[in-house]
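Renewal narrative, Specific Aim 1. Our central claim is that a sequence can be written position by position from structural information alone. The example that follows is taken directly from our test logs and has not been curated for this report. It begins with the structure tokens describing the chain, in the order in which they were read.
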């Protein structure tokens, strides 16, 4: 069983920065594809960024150049550093771990960007 606990969300003004953290329990972290998704009101959950077990990264076009995903395998933690935030970044952000076709989700953390 894998548990994911997100933290770091909050209210920030447009142009500001936030860093989200996701701490994972269990021994599979190093082998997992770790991702951040977000879901805005009335919209489907969408991929924001992913970090592979070998250090590769993928970003949604809407966040390229503004968000950075990183992972600390020693701490079983993945981060999402968000800069130049926009009101359209407002959403619940979810941490996801994927390994062997199994998906694990955190409870989500709210990010609200005011204009």
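The sequence written for that structure reads:
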């Amino acid at each position: 069983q894998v548990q994911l606990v997100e933290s770091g969300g909050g209210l920030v003004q447009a142009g500001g920065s936030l860093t989200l953290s996701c701490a994972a329990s269990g021994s599979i972290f190093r082998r997992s594809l770790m991702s951040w998704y977000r879901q805005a009101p009335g919209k489907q959950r969408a991929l924001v960024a992913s970090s592979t077990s070998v250090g590769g990264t993928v970003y949604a076009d809407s966040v390229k150049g503004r968000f950075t995903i990183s992972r600390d395998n020693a701490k079983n933690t993945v981060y999402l550093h968000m800069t130049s935030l926009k009101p359209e970044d407002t959403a619940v952000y979810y941490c996801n771990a994927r390994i062997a076709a199994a998906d694990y989700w955190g409870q989500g953390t709210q990010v609200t960007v005011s204009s």
